[in-house]
Amino acid sequence: MLTAELQDITKDYFQPAIETATRVLDHISLAIAEDDTIAIMGPSGSGKTTLLNLLGTLDRPTSGKVFRDGISVEQMDEKKLAIVRNRFTGFIFQQHLLLPQLTVLENVLLPVLPVRDKLFKEEAGERALQLIERVGLKNFLYSYPARLSMGECQRAAVVRALINRPKLILADEPTGSLDARNAAMLADLLAELRDNYNYSLVIVTHDPEVARRMKIQYRLLNGKIQVNI
Ligand SMILES: Nc1ncnc2c1ncn2[C@@H]1O[C@H](COP(=O)(O)OP(=O)(O)OP(=O)(O)O)[C@@H](O)[C@H]1O
Ligand SMILES: [Mg+2]
Distance between CA atoms of 99 and 172, rounded to whole angstroms? Predict the structure, then answer.
């Protein structure tokens, strides 16, 4: 089964200043299989974030269909959508968005808070410790984000994105604030953790070194998507 799929999607944004709608995504189809790692490149304004928002069910298309695990997003009620976002999707952004008043451990456990399943919560606690160690932050478990470097914060954000074992990781320029070495390290980490955590990975990036580490590279341009070869 596909983790996510876009079928013949268009997305128009209405621009009040010129009283017209502009088409950002123009009949795009995209299939994301369970073991896919995908890079999406393209110039600023080409619709990369728009496309991630559709995959993450944060926004709806103007026309066309979005599927998550074979189910049309259109048919999901708010409760189901909340589960898809919180349990089945991990988001990583350019800025780590860790809360400054919480420790690293508390930050990575935030997505577990709304989960009711007690066993799942316990497992998530153990998973947090394992993952934090795996990404090299064991010594920072009880530190506040202000003490961490940008690269370390971003690795904590990766752990937070993985903590609920999502089926899909959506990363929007996750290495945009990092130097070349840390950027490559983070991309490798996201690709490697996939072996244990079995998510599909979609990463928006301007960095060819990051894109190169993904199995498939797409380019968005003028509303269309094409495989980058
Ligand atoms: N909520 C919105 N309302 C109106 N226009 C929007 C909205 N969100 C995005 N746009 C427009 O849609 C286009 C695509 O935006 P998007 O953020 O998806 O681009 P992007 O490829 O992620 O760019 P960047 O690389 O700069 O992040 C831009 O022209 C943007 O101004
Ligand atoms: Mg963007």
Answer: 19
| The dihedral formed by the CA atoms of 186, 190, 196 and 201, expressed in degrees to the nearest 10 | 180
Neighbours of ion ligand 2 (CB under 5 A): 48-49
User: Domains of the chain (ranges plus CATH)?
Assistant: 4-227 (3.40.50.300)
Task: Report the separation in Å between the CA atom of 133 and the middle of ligand 2, taken as the mean of its atom positions.
Answer: 30
* Ligand 1 proximity of 166 Cβ (cutoff 6 Å): no
pLDDT average, residue stretch 76-97:
94
CB 197 within 8 A of CB 165: yes
The C-alpha atoms of residue 174 and residue 187 are separated, in whole angstroms, by 9
Residue 70 to residue 202: CA distance in whole angstroms: 18
* pLDDT, tens digit (0-9, with 9 covering 90-100), for 124-160: 999 999 999 999 999 999 999 999 999 999 999 999 9
**From atom 3 of ligand 1, which residue's Cα is the shortest distance away?**
13
CB contact set of 176 (below 8 Å; sequence gap of 6+): 94, 205, 206
Supply the DSSP string of 173-209, one letter for each residue: STTTTS-HHHHHHHHHHHHHHHHHH--EEEEE-S-HH
Q: For 150-166, what is each residue's pLDDT tens digit? A: 999 999 999 999 999 99
Regarding the beta carbon of 96 and ligand 1, being less than 6 Å apart is answered no
